[in-house]
Amino acid sequence: MRILVVEDTADVGEGVVECLEALGHAVDWARDGETADEWLRDTGYQLVVLDLMLPGFDGLTLLRRLRERRCETPVLILTARSAIDDRIGSLDMGADDYLVKPFDFRELQARVRSLLRRHSGGRAAELKCGKLVFDRSARTVRIDDVPAKLTRRELSLLEVFLARPTMVFSKAQLLDQLFGFSAEPTENSIEVLITRLRRKLAGSGVEITAQRGIGYHIVET
Amino acid sequence: MTVALASRLELPPSIFGRLRLLLATVFLIGALGALAAAWTLSKRAATDAYDQLLISSATQISEAITAENGQYSVLPPDSAFETLAQSKDDRFFFAVRAPDGSLLTGEPGLLPGSRHQVDGLPSLDYIDDDGETMRTVTIHRFIASLDTKGWSSVVVAQSLGARYQLVARLMLRIGAIIIFVAALGFLASLEAVKRALRPFDRIGHALSSRRAQDMGPIEVESPTETRALVDTINHTFHRLNERLNKLQNFAGVAAHQIRTPLAALGAQTELLLTDQTAQSRRKRVERIRAHLGKISRLTHQLLGQAMVSYRIDRIPHQEVDLVELVRHVLRDAVPESLSRDLVVEFDYAAPRIPVPGDDINLREALANLVNNAVTHGAVTMLRVRIDEGSDQICIAIADDGPGIASQLWDTATQPFQLPRTEGEGAGLGLSIAADVAKAHGGMLAFAWTAEKLFEISFIVARSAPLEKAA
Quick one: pLDDT at residue B420? Predict the structure, then answer.
């Protein structure tokens, strides 16, 4: 994935760029609002990591211009100002998530992964398959209109399948989407997770099937 | 010049000075008006009185005109001049003329002031005699005998000295009375104003003479009109004092909480420079990262605490939908990087549960509770439930973690009272949540549920609390 980092503080920017490159993404680093705006017009990014306090014009202006151009690229805000005011302002302006400085880089990686996952397969608020309805904003699943008790990781896994129902995912791809390269879990843990999810989806008209040697995909039965 | 004028036109700085200026102006205008009225009335009175004398004298003279054998003659009685002679400094003279206009007696230069011939009706006028103004009265009288008849005339003129003297005498007395009454009124008003303002002076004095450290109530004798002011000042001092005490305690503990991890950080960084092996360096860096995390969380919470207490005092409550708010909190406050996997449940009684509150403070409080539950507690599940009572709403946050030992429940909401012996928290989260609950007419409660879950209830009032928490 191609990610744009907009950050003027060199030490923070360097950390963010390296941390995202470690996830295997191609990262461009703009140090002010004008440059970022120019690059955003020319290049298609899958994600923008945006600092709010920037030289030139600030992050909120950049975000507003981006949304005015009807560009739906997910935006993760980094802010060091009074957390909540910025938070609300930026979420209203169309940011998708935010992190308050100082932040843990593991959390940054997790948020980026989650944003990319959530924005795969379009921005639909609900994903439906069989008797199953996945509410992406509330992060809940209902089977036959009864809430299903899925863990956060099970939800994420289900979301990956539902967002691209025709695609077959290898264990490595799933591991990457759910845990990242640097995390400890092994392919074995993916198998455990899939087994648990299958059990919870019993009777929903949705099944996760294995394609021997290739991976898993979701089917409506 | 204009500057000098402008500064002279400026109002006096004190209320007393302004009222004094106003009163002086009112009394001065009043006194001048009264003096002008007195002057007009005295002048009219003197004129009327002396005119009557003049008319009576002219009438007596006119009645003494006789006609015999075609000859007119006049013999004015003494009494006609007696009254005029009483004003010693005044000159007077007269002229009596026969119907043919010939002078019978008196001054030839004194001509009748009026040609209007009505029997016995006096007509008054002023004339100028060698530069002196004189009052004249003219009376025409119809004289008839056997062989002759016609209109004779009498003119009497008198200088004005006596009138002026009378006016001056009257004005001296009336004027003195007016000035005396006005001055008395002015002084009495000034005294009244001074007395009315005295309680303010006392309050000002009591405030200015106290030491900066003195936060006790001011004690001054104050009438009912200023009682409210004094009470408000004392109440404000009381609140300020409480706030300062709290702040001081807080600052002391916060200093300790900040300096300790900073010192640890310094020490570990020093040691890092002397570490020989890559393995020991890595261990050192891990510890530095842990301390940094602690300082970061503490900074978040200290700033959060500052924001919350500022907003509790300043921000008016608006309608907040708790369902929407908790949904946001669950999305934001559960870290994505959490290594444990959790079931997050959210139950609510109605699709919308509105309460009066401060959106941002409620968010901060609930985010702290949810974050606490997730990072210190929840092993496999976190459950948030909103229950509606008749006058309260309870947001219950339950997890299957170790919870807080019940003997610590009483102190857990105090700042920096860490409920866990070995925790990562800064110890402000529960205190912030408790403050916010209190400001929303509720409280924080701890419990163990029947399913052995540890549950923190964040309770808020359904309607606006009567009094905000001080």
Answer: 55
Cβ–Cβ of A111/B296 closer than 8 Å?
Answer: no
Contact at CB, A84 and B336, closer than 8 angstroms = no
| Residue A28's CATH number | 3.40.50.2300
Q: In whole angstroms, what separates CA B96 from the centre of its chain? A: 77
Task: Give the best residue of B305, B336, B436 to mutate against chain A (max A CB count within 10 A).
Answer: B336
Q: Which residues of B touch A138 (CB under 8 A)?
A: 327, 346
Count chain A–chain B contacts defined by CB atoms under 8 A. 56
Q: Do B334 and A152 touch (CB under 8 A)?
A: yes
Q: What is the mean pLDDT of chain A?
A: 85
Confidence at residue B425, expressed as pLDDT on a 0 to 100 scale: 59
| B201 within a domain of the structure (yes/no) | no
Residue B179: inside a domain:
no
B293 interface with A at CB cutoff 8 Å: yes
DSSP letter string, B270-336: HHHHH--SHHHHHHHHHHHHHHHHHHHHHHHHHHHHHHHHHHHHHPPPEEEEHHHHHHHHHHHHS-T
Same domain as A200, residue A132: yes
Domain of B135: which CATH number?
A: 3.30.450
**B227 lies in which domain range?**
215-314
Total structural domains in chain A? Answer: 2
pLDDT per position as a tens digit, B22-59: 999 999 999 999 999 999 999 999 999 999 989 999 99
Transcribe A152-197 into DSSP letters: HHHHHHHHHHHHSTT--B-HHHHHHHHT-SSS---HHHHHHHHHHH
Instruction: Indicate whether A111 and A136 sit together in one domain.
Output: no
- Reduced to 3 states (helix: H, G, I; strand: E, B; else coil), residue A121 is coil
Q: What ipTM was predicted for this assembly?
A: 0.83
Query: Does a structural domain hold residue B9?
Result: no
- The parent domain of residue A207 ranges over 126-220
The pTM (predicted TM-score) of the whole model is 0.66
Nearest by CB to A151, from B292, B335, B343: name it: B343
Number of domains chain B is built from = 3
Same domain, B24 and B161: yes
Cross-chain residue pair B342–A114, CB shorter than 8 Å: no
Angle at Cα B296 formed by Cα B293 and Cα B297, nearest 5°?
Answer: 90
- Are both B309 and B245 inside the same structural domain? yes
Look at residue B174 and tell me whether its pLDDT is greater than 90: yes
